[in-house]
Amino acid sequence: MTTALHRARFTDRTAMVTGAGSGIGRAIALALAAEGGHVVAVGRRQELLEETVALIEEAGGKALAVSADVARATDVQAAAAAAVEHFGSLDVAVNNAGVFRGGAPLADLTEEDWHTQLDVNVTGVFLALRAEIQQMRTQPTGGAIVNIASIFGAHARNPGAAAYAATKAAVSALTRGAALDHIGDGIRINAVSPGAVQTPMSLRPGETDADRSARARATLPLGRISTTREVAAAVLYLASDDASSVVGTDLVVDSGATA
Asked: Which pTM was predicted?
């Protein structure tokens, strides 16, 4: 009997995850595979993608590594095509790839850092969405897409992160707009907005893991930051049939930071 701890919501479904070489992306890829999904791990560093694939295969799952830069349309289109060629369909997509360039006031941000964040965090999501939707709307079963935004954007701001927040607010808006455009095609599109998560990105300059934990105990209602598995669980909910009537939402996972 299937239980809440041993479910297989993605059996024989193909899921593409961008930024799958580490952190949240790897956790999402592993979680999808653990529930029966065939995972296409997409990212810029092939060696990290191969590590993710190896972890999935060691656990008995199926996965494929595809090197791609999400800011390049041809790369994203090729990744979506590889998913279909290798596994036969593209049923789930998680657009997780993102970068942070900041830590200083906006007036001190370089144009290069601005464009890097815009190219990856916004244009990259747009290009991925377009390629995924174009494939999914040819399938009788449609599909489900989850974009990874952030609480820094539509939900909160932080000093030194104005440009990053602008890009992630754009992801939230893009998610809702695309959701309305394509629910008629049988494609559900939603977003998850994590707060601080146990990845290097949440460490402040010079801060250790222990320092970060102490800061979380003092500032977050939950008293700790989220784990990558907890963010992955939110993504899997939105991508699964459990969320079959959830369209255009932006689910916050932030230990109560914006409560």
From this structure: 0.94
